[in-house]
Amino acid sequence: MDAVDALNEIAFWLERGLAPTFKIQAFRKAAGIIGALDPEEVAARARNGRLKSMKGIGDRTFEVIRQAVDGGVPDYLEDLRQRGQQPLASGGAELRSALRGDLHSHSDWSDGGSPIGLMADAARTLGRDYLALTDHSPNLKIANGLSAERLREQLDVVADINADGGDFRLLAGIEVDILEDGTLVQSPEMLDRLDIVVASVHSKLRMDAGPMTRRMVAAVASPHVDVLGHCTGRLLTGRGRPESEFDDDVVIEACKQFDTAMEVNCRPERLDPPKRILTKAAAAGLHFAISTDAHATEQLEWQPYGTDRAAACGVTGDRVINAMGAGELLEWAGSHPTP
Question: In b/e form, how buried is each residue of 15-34, taking b as 16+ CB within 10 angstroms?
Fold first, then answer.
């Protein structure tokens, strides 16, 4: 098989299986190195061993390349494929099968790693009916958030992708930042043009519980907001980050009153909200969005991490907005009550 394809596929399976980032990057880097060479030169260097002396080619990546240019599927890739046939999480199969789309994803227009078209193609390949493109708003400069002008340009790109008239639909959206006073970092005019708005706290996460509660309730109450994203802001890996403090009973009641969905964030380093909040929200009858928060095509497969936890906490398919068809979803998104 093509050696570049083999290396990239290995990176895909490693990322899917939550391997360390350095390991994933090693295969992507090797793919980039040999991708810049003539295939015949790669084959020759692999067979005489000279490829192994190139910077960025290690023992494992060299062996993968050598086996690929010899015409076979590399042993390491075959092993990963076999392991990849197992589900990412054991629970929530019924809930997972009910999902029709994904309502939180990022492209290379903000802090994602894949172009918009590739994100859409990957979602289509995975059998999704729709994918919401929700790049960051302008206040999040570290994530290259979109100004109103760049968002308008992105809407044209989304329209072009949808112009083929196929069954799949790319939804225009945003992950809009919630400021300290609860206001949203994008104009109402632009938010009105979007299909899906996810509102999230990304700054001042250590506010006192009272102001943080008021901040979140103000955002949830906005008729523009469809989904409250990763509500506690916690991070579980690396150095980690503790949960933001707020009155979850008040926030849950606000979500219920204004029919704003609570996101079940599937990113392995987030898995937000914690089960105690998710169980309470399910008992209150909230709507939910089980979304990957994918920043690359490989991460669009992460929904099982959310459906597993959601099912265990009592979430049922009839309360999940991305189990709706696209038409029903957009009708729901346009019907939020005003404060």
Answer: bbeeeeeeebebbbbbbebb
